[in-house]
Amino acid sequence: MQKAPTQVKVVLLGDSGVGKSSLVLRFVADNFKNDADATIGASYMGKILQFNDKMIKFNIWDTAGQERYHSLAKMYYRDANAAIMVYDITKRDSFEGLKRWHKELQEFGPKDIVVTIAGNKEDLVETEAVPQEEAKEYSKSIGALYRKTSAKTNYGVEQVFRDIATKMCPDLEAQAPAARPSGTISLQPKPTPAGGKKKCC
Amino acid sequence: METPLFLRKKKLFFVFTSAAKPVWTRYGSETDLSTFIGSLAAILYKFQNYYTGIQDSLRYLRTADMYVVFLCTEALFYVCISKGKDSLESLYNQLRMLHTKVISTLTDNITTMLISRPSYDARNLMGGTHSALDYLIRTTAVSPSMLDAFMPVPMLAQHRSQIQLSFKSHLDDDLLYGFIMTSTSIIYRYCRKGENIHHIDTSLLFNMLASHSSLRSTMSWTPICLPNFSDKGFVYAYITFLQDSQVGLALLSDNSAAFKNLKACGDAIETEIRGLLPIIEESVKSIPYSVSICGIKEFKHFIYMTKAVDQYTMSGFTPSTRDFLPEMPIDIYKRTLRRYFAAYKLSNIPEFFKGNYTKIDTYKNEQIVALRTNEYVLFASLSSMLPAAAVVQLTTQLLRWLKSQEQDFFIMR
Ligand SMILES: Nc1nc2c(ncn2[C@@H]2O[C@H](COP(=O)(O)OP(=O)(O)O)[C@@H](O)[C@H]2O)c(=O)[nH]1
Ligand SMILES: [Mg+2]
């Protein structure tokens, strides 16, 4: 019998239109909409990923990022384990915006929160407006992970969440499934690496 | 000079601050329209100068084919330019609803804020609400707003009380209001004991659920200000859709930290009413229903509202089935609605309404019967050929039938 999954609360941050909701929809429901309607308030979705002998349930919160939803900030950030800060690689502004989001995160978020930066819309890489080096450098400077994603083509999406899990629980071997059987996630059980005694999560 | 594109539209709406800063416009970008909005504001001020000392402001201007209607609130100004045939009352109602929607989005704190900073750019604050405001305009244009009521979906009382039961057996202290609704109709409404819920607050929640498709793909926790509950702050709505359906469940709380509790409560209700899903979906499909269901072939249309509950029911303006009569196209319905408005307006005059009011208006193509008592309001449209005695007799018959159906038409307590 499996143990109950470990709960991980993840919040998404980033300017409106960068693809936060699309990333979540892709990750949770493997779906993408070209004409997604703007988020209203905060939305919640859950998804379980299987790692070797462990299950992790991601409780994912996504907001519209509008000023008027500020009253949600407290509950949004409370007890969050990880934050995904998203920018649109074709929009320089959205990258600059990350600084503001990071500031807010430091103000409201827990101290030990795991931060990942996702450069989304990788499928539009020809019109990339932010040099990858610069994005990586910025990520490093704030101690964040970095990954390029595309909610449209499903590039790197699940990996963002696996990165988070690995960072939080270093004894996990975060390996993406070799092939994705549609809808379900089944991972080949791998021998647990010896050593890693650190209590996970 | 060429007319700007937006001015060719039939019905324009503008929202701006006392410093003529645009907040929202239905067509065209606010930036392109800033000069036009500046002129509208100038007209308002000009007139205000004439009326110093009187607590009033410009209400409307009219030309042969156009109304320009103004609604001035403390800090926000609303203008509608209509080239349609809508009545003044209906246009005012639309402006009032727009204001209500703005408050519902930002709370009344926006008023305080704009009084101290009239040139504040409030457009961003309203970001993401365009489709909801537009939807509000479209729905209020065809609603019998004078009745101060909303229309639920007809459903067998026994089924509706099963939904009620599932709410009652999973109550949470944090639960203030609860709804089962789709983007076209309200199926059930719960209200915490000792509280009331206003029909406008109901419409606002309905507007939000109906106009944001993003709510459909996830579970949401969204602040919404319900001005009749309190315009000073938000209540919070937990919104989810029953699996693989268009049926939404909304649970509201005045506690911003109630998400977990309401989700648990919602999960329990959802499990319990899942079996009713086919019935709910069937009843949603039943509206708009044909006027013929009353079984009296002389009627072309009716609206019935009972004051015991703030709800009305009406036959469709484009019924899918037409057993007896040609369907009522939207334009004809709008004309009939204008006549209902006119009849109702008269009944509001105290000399006319002394607890009982009956009136038959004969037009070239229809007769409008208006009945108003302290218990109910009934409007109906019949052929213009019928003699008055027949109209009275048929109306009595219709009323008897409606009363017998109340339990299914309305969400009873
Ligand atoms: N080409 C492309 N478009 C995307 C991608 N992700 C999102 N979008 C589009 O970007 C727009 C905004 O996405 P949304 O998820 O609503 O952004 P949010 O405001 O950050 O939640 C939508 O029209 C999406 O279809 C992506 O990876 N590639
Ligand atoms: Mg979004």
UniProtKB/TrEMBL annotation, chain A:
Keywords: Nucleotide-binding. Residues 175-201 are annotated as: Disordered. It holds the Pfam family Ras. InterPro entries: P-loop_NTPase (IPR027417), Small_GTP-bd (IPR005225), Small_GTPase (IPR001806). Gene3D superfamilies: P-loop containing nucleotide triphosphate hydrolases. PROSITE patterns: RAB, RAS, RHO. GO terms for molecular function: GTP binding; GTPase activity. The keyword Nucleotide-binding applies. CDD domains: Rab5_related. This is Uncharacterized protein. It comes from Blepharisma stoltei.
TrEMBL record, chain B:
Residues 174-267 form the FUZ/MON1/HPS1 second Longin domain. Residues 11-136 form the FUZ/MON1/HPS1 first Longin domain. Residues 301-406 form the FUZ/MON1/HPS1 third Longin domain. InterPro entries: FUZ/MON1/HPS1_longin_1 (IPR043972), FUZ/MON1/HPS1_longin_2 (IPR043971), FUZ/MON1/HPS1_longin_3 (IPR043970), Mon1 (IPR004353). One of its GO terms (biological process) is vesicle-mediated transport. Transmembrane segments: none annotated. It comes from the Eukaryota. PANTHER family: SAND PROTEIN-RELATED, VACUOLAR FUSION PROTEIN MON1 HOMOLOG. This is Vacuolar fusion protein MON1 homolog.
